Task: structure prediction
Amino acid sequence: MAPQAPRERETAAMRRAIALAARGLGRTRPNPVVGCVILGPDGEVAGEGWHRRAGGPHAEVHALAEAGQAARGGTAVVTLEPCNHTGRTGPCTRALLAAGIARVVYAVPDPTAAARGGAAALAAAGAEVSGGLLRAEAEAGNAAWLTAARLGRPLVHWKYAATLDGRTSAADGTSRWITSAESRADVHRLRAGSDAVLVGSGTLRADDPHLAVRGVPGAVQPLRVALDTEAAVVKPGARVLDGTAPTLVAVADDLPAERTAPLAAAVSGTRAEVVRLPRAAAGRGLSLPALLAELHRREIRSVLLEGGPVLAGAFAAAGLIDRVTGYLAPALLGAGPQALGDAGVTTIAQALRLHLTDVTRTGPDLRITAVPRPRAASAAPAAPEES
Result:
């Protein structure tokens, strides 16, 4: 077999770096996930690394440590432009130059004011620098952090499970189990890759969900977020108040103290806290932009939305869903709640069109992942409480 050309080797190394970066999902907040592959002067892989946790060494440092002297005169292939600032760790530009790296290839330019400028600093020091290799693939893998950096809010990933005719439960309200054990296990992997899991009062009332990760070794438990606008659903003994993971209960900021006193007593001594947020401008429920701003302030970069159809519809209508994963079971119910409630769509021209990014079998079910296509901006609607 003929040896790979340098460009082919760099492309293969970038694909590997993107895969390495994914290992950090759910573990690095508020930092990005980053992967790095070091190619020696001979073009062979000399070292690999990924960012494993916030405050720890960056991907480049791990890869350089594995490469050792083989990095000198070689190429660093990185999913994100190397940082050029000192935070809890030193600048990766300095580490790359000190190791004798001659060429740096990165996928995505850093959009943050604090860390960008690494490419220019490397070039000024004499390194050859090239950006944009497999940028779309690397951006998709780092979508949560990039969304937070660009929009000032977490990425919202809506997950639902339904029958082929779009029902999330039967007419009598029963829903366990629509999808298979394989699909339910896959949902826990989605949770493990998220910083927070979010539900509304309808789901809290109907299911008393736990929302923690199970069956994923080494997972960092996400923040459980429960929207309880009227402070009427989360009670002592609720599963979201156990000690498995931290919990944030959001209530309306205009509730009198006597209305929230039972909830305050319920969360006392647990890993939960209560936050007051403004109501939606119209309709029921809380302001979704205010909720996401609060989560962003708490360094949440990705939210897995597991709420029911009303809450999902409110997020969709507000243009606040960035990714959708649907688990479709080969079953028909013919009646019962639909997966998505009112999303502000009144005519086919307003349909929320999606771009499919993945279709995979999970046991007998089908898992479909998609992202919204750009659409004309519309007025933000009410954010109703689930019912």
